[in-house]
Amino acid sequence: MSDLWNTDGSLTGGAVNILPVSCMPFGVEYVVRACNCLPDKQDIWTAQDVEQSILQGSEYLLLVHQDDVLGACAVRVYADGSADLFNFALYPQYRGKGYGHRALELILAYIRGKQAACVYIRVNRDNIPAHKLYTAHGFA
Questions:
Q1: What is the mean pLDDT of residues 83-112?
Q2: What is the C-alpha separation between 1 and 41, in angstroms, rounded?
């Protein structure tokens, strides 16, 4: 299935869509909830943290299925063609159902659309499910 860019800036693929926070009312609040739902999360993100990160060049994406927010992530693309992917989080009820794989495919397509050729993943070393997801998509 090819990825489709929508007129609102979202990217549709199968059952999962990604939506830039700027496209959705209360987007920052959704990001804060999603980023703080990880079991190994030791730092609590606030709306101020997310807004500061946006001011520093990060872009936050909401992961959406139908009318449900599944989770969120942050990306930052640099002038040298590299990008960071961080704070990728799905709510617990959506884990282990394939949403993470589809969401990661869409996130990577989104990053490629921003002309980034190299993606760095920031993930806690103890987050085994995330490591398995990234390994399945070719990250070492």
A1: 91
A2: 34
